[in-house]
Design brief:
The complex is a heterodimer of chains A (297) and B (229).
Chain A (H helix, E strand, L loop, with lengths): L2 E7 L8 H9 L9 E7 L6 E7 L7 H11 L4 E5 L2 E7 L3 H8 L6 E6 L2 E7 L2 H8 L8 E7 L14 E4 L2 E9 L2 H10 L9 H14 L4 H11 L2 E8 L3 E6 L8 E4 L3 E5 L15 E3 L7 E4 L2
Antiparallel strand pairs in A: 1-8, 1-14, 2-7, 2-8, 3-5, 3-6, 4-5, 9-10, 10-11, 11-12, 12-16, 13-14, 13-15
Chain B lengths: L1 E4 L5 H9 L9 E5 L16 E5 L14 E4 L15 E4 L15 E4 L12 E7 L13 E6 L15 E4 L10 E4 L3 H13 L12 E5 L15
Parallel strand pairs in B: 1-2, 2-3, 3-4, 4-5, 5-6, 6-7, 7-8, 8-9
Antiparallel strand pairs in B: 9-11, 10-11
The chains are: A alpha+beta (297), B mainly beta (229).
């Protein structure tokens, strides 16, 4: 099972509705993934700054954490709270001291980092997760969400999708990989590090390694066809890109829709029914082993 | 004509209503509005009624159908008309994977494309796809006819038994034990009958199709294979 919803806007006028649309898409996918949910939103960039999405325990006193970060960056800290997550804007040239400051708080997890990407994920019913984080009010150009029914690893917040292995890059996955341990070992040799034993994190890391090696997103996705074995539908986000890939036997369901305003991915058509102008959209099933990819201009 | 709006009724209510229909009743024409991709719309009907669904449906639409005609104006998700016994299911858009799976009888017509595993394990159903079918179509197909007006994906008819496959376009590859066979007059007549039933007018020349079926080397025990057991 598991459910995926992805949205890439071609019409900037819709950016204010991105989160509301994604929340609406995730809702019918509750039954496909009731364990946990997560989403990545590519929102506005603050020039010269990196956004750190941090997860803190419930009832955590955030003041010492914020104070530590303020001291590390040497300036007032722009930050937002979303339930258990905090999005903090750190001047890019102060990234290293900020990371050092975070080491003093072992109970705080860095969920993701990027110029534009913010990532939120938690255990629980997807509708509850969306509501707790305030997804409906989030804005941006593209977003990827996931509802999880765990098969390969435990139901934990760290096991929820999206997985991120580099700045502004994330991946969600429906399926299971059979050779992830071997690929993980190879990627570790290449210098990557992993936070979990999860198969999907390996797929994200594989894309990271290819992108760092100079591949385009399309090339990175194409090369995963030869290296990742198992069942998968991937939806991948980068700072300006959005990609979809299904395994060569198309084991997991997928539907896409495109209008003049947007491109949407849903595990089922039910996820797409409330999108604007869906009645006149081009609706199709993405073909197996074919990379579909869009880029912001 | 009777209408059921799935914006206000549940799929269970719709199906229960259709299951209560008695033989010879007057309620023979139904319209279903706002399916919005829901699963199992109009399944298990046992009376010769017409059900027209306005929009896209989710999984298993028209499954287990007996006698009824179910028409979908949009696309259908996985397993449309799965295990159909008789009657007709007509999808005016595309169909997802496993269209007509395990069908025992009746006619499934898809105006657009069907994706992977169309007609998997079909047991007597006739399927006419006016576009193309995806990979592994007619996998372990036992009986019935699969007619494809455009192309077929890889591994067509893998491990096929006695179903008949007709493809007008390109076949990207045949599965294990599936071979091309001569298209004789009896097969052309069979094709004409199926195309007529699917509303394909005479402009399609049945001579343009190629026929595929079982080499019958896989499903009988062969003494030369004794060492493999």
């Amino acid at each position: 099972m598991c459910g995926i919803a992805g949205l890439f806007l071609k019409d900037r006028k819709l950016e204010g509705d991105l989160g509301a649309m994604l929340a609406g898409m995730l809702s019918p996918l509750n039954d496909r993934g009731p364990d946990s949910a997560g989403f990545a939103v590519y929102g506005a960039e603050m020039p010269g700054h990196l956004k750190f999405t941090l997860r803190v325990p419930q009832l955590f006193d955030v003041e010492p954490l914020l104070k530590g970060l303020r001291e590390a960056v040497g300036a007032p800290l722009a930050h937002r709270h979303h339930d258990t997550h905090i999005v903090a804007s750190i001047p890019a040239d102060r990234e290293a001291p900020a990371r050092r400051a975070l080491q003093a708080f072992p109970e705080v997890t860095i969920v993701g980092c990027g110029r534009r990407m913010e990532i939120f994920k938690e255990v629980g019913r997807p509708d509850d997760v969306s509501r707790r984080f305030g997804l409906k009010r989030m804005t941006g150009t593209h977003a990827i969400g996931h509802t999880r029914m765990a098969t390969e690893s435990a139901v934990t917040t760290n096991g929820a999708h999206p997985f991120t292995t580099d700045e502004d890059q994330c991946l969600v996955h429906n399926g299971s990989l059979s050779n992830h341990n071997a690929v993980r070992r190879e990627l570790i040799k290449q210098g990557l590090s992993f936070q979990t034993e999860n198969d999907t994190e390996v797929a994200a890391g594989f894309i990271t390694a290819k992108l760092r090696g100079g591949c385009s997103l399309r090339q990175a996705m194409e090369s995963s066809l030869g290296s990742l074995d198992g069942f998968y539908t991937f939806v991948i986000g980068t700072k300006a890109g959005f990609g979809v890939l299904r395994d060569p036997i198309a084991c997991k369901p997928a539907v896409m829709a495109e209008t003049e305003q947007l491109v949407a991915f849903g595990t089922e058509y039910r996820a797409l029914v409330d999108l604007p102008r869906i009645e006149s959209a081009k609706v199709w099933e993405p073909a197996p082993a074919i990379v579909y990819q869009w880029e912001l201009h | 004509m009777l209408a059921v709006d799935l914006a206000h009724s549940s799929v269970r209510e719709l199906n229960a209503t259709l299951h209560r229909l008695a033989p010879g009743g007057n309620e023979t024409h139904w319209r279903v509005l706002n399916p919005r991709g829901q699963h199992a719309v109009a399944v298990g009907i046992e009376q010769p009624v017409l059900v027209e669904i306005e929009g896209h449906v989710g999984y298993y639409c028209g499954g287990m159908n007996k006698l009824a005609t179910v028409i979908v104006s949009g696309n259908a998700g996985q397993g449309v008309a799965e295990n159909m016994m008789s009657g007709k299911v007509w999808v005016k858009g595309d169909a997802s994977q496993a269209a007509g799976a395990t069908g025992c009888g009746g006619l499934l017509v898809i105006d657009g494309n069907a994706s992977a595993r169309c007609g998997i394990s079909m047991k007597g159903i006739d399927i006419v796809v006016k576009g193309s079918v995806g990979h592994l179509s007619a996998f372990m197909a036992q009986a019935g006819n699969l007619v494809v007006l455009e192309d077929a994906g890889e591994a067509l008819g893998d491990s096929i038994y006695e179903a008949q496959l007709y493809v007008r376009g390109k076949v990207h590859g045949l599965g294990a034990d599936c071979i091309e066979k001569p298209l004789e007059e009896a097969h052309k007549a069979n094709l004409r009958r199926l195309l007529d039933a699917a509303g394909v007018n005479g402009s399609v020349d049945v001579g343009e199709f190629r026929r595929y079926g079982s080499a019958r080397k896989l499903y009988h025990f062969h003494v030369d294979n004794i060492g493999n057991y």
